[in-house]
Specification:
The chain has 220 residues and is an alpha/beta fold. The chain is built from nine helices and six strands, in the order ααααβαβαβαβαβαβ.
């Protein structure tokens, strides 16, 4: 059986390929295509069991639906915890995780990041990177979102150092969220007193009346 194509859908529905493409990509209303025409196109797609090309969707949306995950060597517990939490949530959004492990002796981070860039991952999560100063600038230029998960805060920090987490999050919102229209997430360790999480919830989640769960707490 011949595979259904955008051309065959458009011909059967009596519309142009452009119109069919808009409807099948959920942009029918945006381009003011009347409801009857949209329903006719969608019905033809159902009857022909049309499956859109992943490559075509990527070119159209600019998204590859993949997240790059840079992991250090010898971090099995942390890697397992992250994968356990991240993969189910990403799968619900039709995203896939692309992991890469920087080999000892701590070389190879740049090569992995370059590969993520080549594959056009939509974002990158880096766990305890050692050389982010060598490649983070490239991601900033490309406007690729980067999340760095670093070591726990040192317990020997001077008592004179105070962190105004509310101010920090407000700065993030002002400099990144409002400009790039990106969501801000929080990943932290589960504990009774978590001032960073409290600031995140009050300054971001409550402020913008966001109902989705954009924070994850790890037990280890």
């Amino acid at each position: 059986m011949k595979r259904a194509s955008l051309k065959s859908i458009a011909a059967a529905a009596g519309v142009s390929k452009t119109t069919a493409s808009f409807v099948l990509n959920g942009k029918g209303k945006q381009h003011k295509i009347n409801t009857t025409t949209q329903e006719r196109i969608l019905e033809e797609a159902r009857q022909q069991n049309y499956q859109p090309s992943f490559l075509a969707q990527t070119l159209s949306s600019g998204k590859t639906m993949t997240i790059g995950l840079l992991l250090p060597q010898n971090e099995d517990n942390l890697a397992n915890a992250l994968l356990h939490h991240l993969i189910p949530e990403l799968q619900l959004l039709n995203y896939r995780l692309l992991p890469g492990i920087a080999p000892e002796p701590n070389f190879g981070e740049r090569e992995i990041i370059d590969d993520f860039i080549l594959r056009q991952t939509d974002a990158i999560v880096a766990v305890k990177p050692l050389h982010e100063n060598e490649w983070a600038g490239s991601l900033a230029i490309l406007q690729t979102p980067l999340v760095i998960i670093s070591n726990e805060e040192s317990s020997v920090l001077p008592n004179t150092i105070k962190h105004d987490y509310a101010q920090i999050i407000n700065m993030l919102i002002q400099q990144h969220f409002q400009h790039h229209k990106k969501a801000i997430g929080f990943i932290g360790k589960e504990r009774d007193n978590n001032p960073r999480l409290k600031a995140y919830l009050s300054c971001y989640i409550e402020r913008f009346d966001i109902s989705s769960n954009y924070h994850y707490l790890l037990k280890q």
